């Protein structure tokens, strides 16, 4: 097992720790005695897991540690971390009476299901799935993380609806672009 894969597994292990600390913080807020050290610990754990994502990718590329396991595991851990963060930003009380709206988390889940189902269909029909990451997909992830961070960091200078709308626009846009990418790869479309 490579160092890059070990770091990815560490990131995976940090996800339930982050969730536990975030939920525990939310309970302290609900009880009326918010423990701000827990909030900052949750932010630190999430940040560490996110930073380690860049480090494991850099190690894999720089030291030729690219493996099939890493290629499969890394994006799954990325998605699990992001989804866990978004779910806590939707359902956990972060102490500022702001939550990501339910419609937003439904939109994010629907986009991810569209991509997963599309990959299955393409693999079934073509026996291969040449998916290229798109800049709009990366912008989608970044804007979702910003909306989540808005809550976790208690950034109240600008209403949460604005970063949420920006993230929703990129989520819809990336869903559309990935749909088009998959549609072009369907057997009847790839011949033309």
Structure explained in plain terms:
It is a single chain. The protein has 192 residues and is mostly helical. It folds into two domains: 1-95; 97-192, no CATH class. It is built from seven helices and no strands. Helix 2 (36-62) packs antiparallel against helix 3 (68-91), helix 3 (68-91) crosses helix 5 (135-152) and helix 5 (135-152) runs antiparallel to helix 6 (161-184). The longest helix is centred in the first third of the chain and has 28 residues, at 3-30. The chain is globular and about 60 Å long.
Summarize the topology.
Blueprint: H1 3-30, H2 36-62, H3 68-91, H4 102-126, H5 135-152, H6 161-184, H7 187-190
Task: Give a nutshell description of this structure.
Helices cover 78% and strands 0% of the residues. It has 192 residues and is mainly α.
How do the helices and strands follow one another from N- to C-terminus? HHHHHHH
- Tally the beta strands: 0
Low-pLDDT parts are none
Give helix % range. Answer: over 70%
Number of domains: 2
Secondary-structure-derived class: mainly alpha
Q: Shape, please?
A: globular
Proportion of strand residues: under 5%
> Count the helices. How many?
7
Largest sheet: none
Provide the residue-averaged pLDDT: 92
Key terms:
single chain; 192 residues; mainly alpha; 2 domains; 7 helices; 78% helix; 0% strand
């Amino acid at each position: 097992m490579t160092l890059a894969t070990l770091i990815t597994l560490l990131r995976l292990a940090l996800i339930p720790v982050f969730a536990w600390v975030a939920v525990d913080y939310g309970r302290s807020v609900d009880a009326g005695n918010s423990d701000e050290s827990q909030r900052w610990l949750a932010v630190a754990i999430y940040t560490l897991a996110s930073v380690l994502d860049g480090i494991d990718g850099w190690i894999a590329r720089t030291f030729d540690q690219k493996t099939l396991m890493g290629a499969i595991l890394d994006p799954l851990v990325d998605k699990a971390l992001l989804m866990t963060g978004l779910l806590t930003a939707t359902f956990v009380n972060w102490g500022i009476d702001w939550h990501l709206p339910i419609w937003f988390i439904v939109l994010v889940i629907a986009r991810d299901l569209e991509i997963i189902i599309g990959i299955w269909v393409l693999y079934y029909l073509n026996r291969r799935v040449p998916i290229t990451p798109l800049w709009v997909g990366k912008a989608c992830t970044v804007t979702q993380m910003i909306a989540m961070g808005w809550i976790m960091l208690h950034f109240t200078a600008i209403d949460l609806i604005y970063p949420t709308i920006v993230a929703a626009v990129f989520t819809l846009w990336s869903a559309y672009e990935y749909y088009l990418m998959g549609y072009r790869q369907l057997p009847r479309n790839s011949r033309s």
